[in-house]
Every structure is written in C-alpha cells, then in structure tokens.
Amino acid sequence: MNSVHDVPIADATPAAETHAHHGYITDKEKYLNRLKRIEGQARGIHKMVDDEKYCIDILTQISALTSALEAVAVGLLDDHLRHCVVDAARLGGPEADAKITEATQAIARLVR
Amino acid sequence: MNSVHDVPIADATPAAETHAHHGYITDKEKYLNRLKRIEGQARGIHKMVDDEKYCIDILTQISALTSALEAVAVGLLDDHLRHCVVDAARLGGPEADAKITEATQAIARLVR
Amino acid sequence: MNSVHDVPIADATPAAETHAHHGYITDKEKYLNRLKRIEGQARGIHKMVDDEKYCIDILTQISALTSALEAVAVGLLDDHLRHCVVDAARLGGPEADAKITEATQAIARLVR
Amino acid sequence: MNSVHDVPIADATPAAETHAHHGYITDKEKYLNRLKRIEGQARGIHKMVDDEKYCIDILTQISALTSALEAVAVGLLDDHLRHCVVDAARLGGPEADAKITEATQAIARLVR
C-alpha cells in the first residue's frame, strides 16, 4: 500500500481531525482489509464473465459481494453514529439535527 | 380507533415516557395513516391472489408495499435517532453505546 | 372470505385459464394463508405505533413483514417462470421475448 | 487484459458452448466494461477509507456501487432466462424444472 495518510492527517483540517478521533483509526485496518477483499471479489467477477463462467455462479458471487459491501456500510454507519452523531448530539442545536438528517438519508439510500 | 394510549402513558415507565416526548406524538397520525394504507395494500394483494390476477401485476403491488414499508421504517428510525439516541448521547456512558448498537442492529436488519 | 372466484374462473378469458393451470391453484391456499398472516402483521404494526411501542421493536416487525413479502414475491415469481414463461418459451417468437422482459423488469423492481 | 478465453472456449464442454450461444458474447464487452468500472469504484472506496474521507460520502459511494452490481446481476439474469432457461423449457422434463429452481434460488439471493 502506498498510502501516506499519517502525514496528511497531521496537516488535516480540524473537521477531519475530529473525524479521525475515537477509534475510527483503530478499525481502519479492518475496513481496508475488507475493502481489499471486495476489490478482489470485483476482479474475480470480471474474470468470471471474461471466462464465460456459468451465469448462476456469477450471480452467486455478485450476491456475496453485495453482502460484503452492505456489511462494510453498516459498520461505517455504526462508527458514524457512535462518533460524529453523538458528538453533534452533545453540542445540540441545528448542527445535531443536520447530522441526523444526513445519516437518515444515507440509511434510506442503503435500504432503498 | 379504540386506542386509549393517553391513559396508559400516564402510568408508563420512565423509559416509555421519555420515548413519547419530542414530537413523536406529533407525527403519529401520519404514521397511522400510512400504516392503514399499508394494511389496505396487503388486503389488496390477498384479493389479487384470490382472484388469480396476473402474477406480474401482483409482484408490482408487492414491490410497492415493500417500498411503503421501507419508507415507514426509515421515518421511524429517523425519529428514533433524533430522540432516543440523541437523548442517550447527551447522558453518555454505556447507555449511549447500547442505544447506538441497538440502532445499528435495526439498520442491519433493514439493509440485510 | 367472501370470494366467489370458482365461478368467475369458469367464465374467464383464455389467458386467465392458462394462468390458472399447472398447480397455480394447488399452491393458492398456501399463498392466501401467508397473505392473511401478512395482513395481520401489518395490522399489528399499526397497533404498535398506536400504542407507542418502542421504535426498535416496531422496526423489527417491519423487517419481518418485509421478509415475509419478499418470500411471497419469490414464490410467485418461481410459479410465473415455471408456468407462463415456460409456456411462452415453448411457443417461441416475440411473445417469449416479451414474457422474459416482463419477468426481468419485475425482478429488477424486487431487487431494486 | 490477459484473457485467452477464445482458446479455452474451443475446448469447452458442450454445456459451456451452449451457454456461449445466443448473443451472450455480443453483450460481453458491455459487461466487462461495467465490471471494470465496478472494480474502479471498489478501489475508490478503499482509497476514501485510507484517506479518511467523510463517512457519509463513503456510504454514498457504497450505495452507488451496490446499485451498479445489482444492475449487472439483473442483466445477467435476463440473459440467463432468455437463453439457458428458454432452451431448457423447450427441451422440457426435469432439466427445465431444475433450471427454473436454480434461477429462482439466484433471484432469492439477490432479493434477500
């Protein structure tokens, strides 16, 4: 991995710094690993189509990939509620309301 | 409607009282109306099967009903985040954590 | 139940008669029972909101109802593929193509 | 792309050959392009997490990727119904039934 995120974080805007608090970093490796696997799954599906594998087997892999993505989304949303939304709730006011509205809209897109 | 919820609320546990605050009641009629329509949609699908309507038309109605339910779920979840979760966040501690975990699990069930 | 569908079926258009073949009737009671339960679940959710039950418990019931509806939809789609689509496939021509397109569109609405 | 699928196809089992008929190949480039884009989207989400972008923006990209995958799945399913299932339907017998059961199970996994 060619990421140099430790350096940019030092220079980050206050907003990004707040966001990086509270163990978001702690779980980051877990998310990066899961997303690496997801990339591999996407590449595998491309290869299955290229190799003209049986449709149903390709569909099974797409379902597995979709589930993996949903699990990442739910995990990120949990982190988001636990940190950003809770922080905003403590501050209160319109900022808290806006954070909830934003989270609900993200949930609506995931639920569809 | 034969609900007598105003009386039981007076006797309710503190948790239930907290839950009834903050405009949850205000939107209640909207939810009740939407759920009445949803009941009607479910009854309509039953009748379509009983009348042996065309499968595809029945499936269209099932998709519409599922979307209506998802919209209610997202609305209730928004209310829940806005009231219960925000209240818990302000109190902080393990209670706040437990509320977020519970909300995330509900979201995971909706997203699947 | 006030259905008198046995009589209308006798008078039905040829299309409806074809549709009623092949065991569609056989499973009909199963679908009607499942849809009766689904109506009951919808009524139960209405009552939960009216009684101001805990949001998360209402969301759990909505997820259960959505799953029950999806199971009915998949079952009806299976019947549809097995009968209407297979019949059309045997006849061939643009009718077969149109049936597949129609089925795919119904699937797309279910998958979203 | 390092695929050498033209050669293996020449050696393919009869089942694979049947599967490659009927324009499945024609649309193949379209699927490969869409899946390349999907791989790029997955890589982009990995980078967003690595760069610690805002959670909600990552969730938006996950929703977009999930929708793109669902569109590919519905397209492949349409092809599958149109070719494999229609062919099996014409032959009839237990093979046709097995193909429908298999397709329904794939649909159930997509619908969840």
Automatic annotation (TrEMBL), chains A, B, C, D:
Pfam families: Trns_repr_metal. InterPro entries: Metal_Tscrpt_repr (IPR003735), Metal_Tscrpt_repr_sf (IPR038390). The keyword Chloroplast does not apply. Keywords: Copper. Coiled coil: none annotated. It comes from the Bacteria. Belongs to the CsoR family. This is Metal-sensitive transcriptional regulator. It comes from Microbacterium aoyamense.
